Amino acid sequence: MTEKQATNTGTPARRGMSRRNFLKVGGAGLAGMSLLGASACGGGGESSGNTLIMSMGPDDTGTLQELLDKFNKQHKGEFQVKYRVMSSDTGQYFDQMKTEFQAGGGEVDVIGGDVIWPAQFAAQGWITDFSDRMKGKEDQYLSGPVQSLTYDGKIWGVPWYTDAGVLYYRKDLLDKHGLKPPKTWDELIKQAKQVQEAEDMKYGFVFQGSEYEGGVCNGNEYIATCGGHILDPADPNKVVVDSPEAVAGLTVMQDTVKDGAAPLAVSTYTEEETDPAFLGGDAVFARNWPYMYALASDPKVSNIKPEQISVVPLPTGPPNPTIAATLGGWNFLVNAASDMQDEAWEFIQFMTSEENMKYRAVKATLLPTLKSLYDDPDVVEAIPVIKLANESIAHTVPRPVSPYYGDMSLEMAEQFTKVVKGDSSPEQAAQSLKKGLEDIIEQAQ
User: How far apart are CA 99 and CA 24, in angstroms?
Assistant: First the structure.
């Protein structure tokens, strides 16, 4: 899997069908698509007494297969691990796993799962409780990934690699105009308009405002950086998106467009549109994932050079300014129906060891979840954005951790995009979203 595919957190680089429309395909249609995917990936008849099946999306870097080969060589005569390649569309991957679980568990033992999956699977009893195995190990990992695995007071997997939303800016242009990178949303709006006008640029600020999972990540950040939440962290069945802090975050999101810092077109932007807008030299600021920094070194896709840009944490806003970035990334989960629980744990320990996590960080430029690797000079050299965005990575916040997240995501995506477009006021969107999320919880219980 490429870093870009990994960071899109449910939104692959290219998709023929939006996640919202895909989830509207119900019953036999959904099951048929999922089962067809399972067949195409070689699902039938793979499992055997000494073969552990691991699922994950495509790995274009080759590093995942290299580690699997290394593990299998070390464990020859014991058990072997087979890589089942899943769809790069994490929405389709999720629904395929869901269909297999509903049909009795399927043949996958270890699941490379999106950070938004654990609660949804754990609530159904489909994945293994790792609380005992992880006891005393939690502090070795960044807190955000551990939070994403925590549901009902238990830990349901092991963090693998991570991601975080960050603010890119044209360092050369801010220096030229005597400006420091913005620490508040108000400062960003003013600077974006000032530099855009002075340099005759197309855009001041671009971000992902389209109606999809990436838009949910952005909306979650606006709310979090103003001190708000969508669900009460202490009670995932309590919706608090109508709080003054959450409404303030939605107001900031709307104001970036309303005040002219960002174009209305961001209501259709995914990562695919953000990359060329910023790297093409048309925008002063951009909210995106760390992968974009590496693209600046490729003259085929970037008109600007790495030394012209820099990265800082996302700005904050009143009433409760909070450094925050939406958590992305992947965890290891284990099928509760697997009869290879100990083998799965042994394999996961191998993959998440400091040595092997460092290997993928350096070779595939994936952000590690082990805290110790953020001081490793080889990792920092391979992923320069770590040094620039360390504060963002350390302050990640998960999207709502709920067994009903799939339905909630659709509601959030719709309301957040309405705010960006100006079709709803922040207050109206917050009230609509509160009712929508409460209805989802009530109907599911």
Answer: 15
pTM strictly above 0.90: no
Residue 189 φ then ψ, to 5°: -60, -45
Residue type, 333: L
Q: Going by DSSP bridges, is the β-strand pair 325-334/158-164 parallel, antiparallel, or unpaired?
A: antiparallel
- What's the pLDDT score for residue 257? 98
For residues 303 and 281, give the distance between their C-alpha atoms in angstroms, rounded to a whole number.
6
What are the φ/ψ torsions at residue 249 (nearest 5 degrees)?
A: -65, -45
Q: Is 256 helix (H, G, I), strand (E, B) or coil?
A: helix
Domains in the chain: ranges and CATH = 3-162+329-394 (3.40.190.10), 166-325+402-444 (3.40.190.10)
Distance CA 364, CA 1 (A): 9
- Please write the tens of the pLDDT for every residue from 278-314: 999 999 999 999 999 989 989 999 999 999 999 999 9
Q: Which residues pair with 265 in a beta bridge?
A: none
The residue ranges of DSSP E strands in 289-324, in sequence order, are: 309-312
Q: What is the pLDDT of residues 330-345, one digit of tens each?
A: 999 999 999 999 999 9
Place of tokens 């890119």: 168
Distance, CA of 360 to CA of 279 (rounded, Å): 26
Structure tokens at 261: 């810092």
Alpha carbons within 13 angstroms on the beta-carbon side of residue 129 total 9
